[in-house]
């Protein structure tokens, strides 16, 4: 799998932090260049140091995953992953290979972080690391914790909370809230039909449920959805 690795600006002994962007299918370069990486991209396409980069306090690892995301590609369809078990196994294998290649970081504290659909990846990956450590598989990974930002973990719960939150934050009016909320039962049914089989019904549930979010955003104007507090 394709990755970027940046040593800490402070010390090689700082924790190793892996970042996973969600999607599914969003490259981790999104976070690297627009969120918490060591650089941002200037208007003239040059790189500028990010004064808020996490590399000020950690050794940062960005991975394009699962296979088929960003620069991580394969011509073999058998490499395409369809569930969290497969994704977490690939990430665990990647981590084993990374620490074998960079043994000087293997004993550092290790944290798993990410956002959005990584709310699915991160717990599964953390559990896989824990199982590997417990079974004494390969290199011991000094997992200390994980963090999920704006995580998508349970759509059936989260989508129906969007309108309540938007109303509480003054983004929409009560009449808008009640109107958009009529989509919630349809969304819940679509999610149940989707289940875990990943068929066309899941794509349908995505579009149905996103009508709730899109309905709110159509009224929100220039509101930054990641900065409502």
Automatic annotation (TrEMBL):
Coiled coil: none annotated. One of its GO terms (cellular component) is vacuole. The keyword Magnesium does not apply. Its EC number is 3.4.16.-. Belongs to the peptidase S10 family. This is Carboxypeptidase. GO terms for molecular function: serine-type carboxypeptidase activity. It is found in: Secreted. Pfam families: Peptidase_S10. It is an enzyme of class 3 (hydrolase). Keywords: Carboxypeptidase, Hydrolase, Protease, Secreted. One of its GO terms (biological process) is proteolysis.
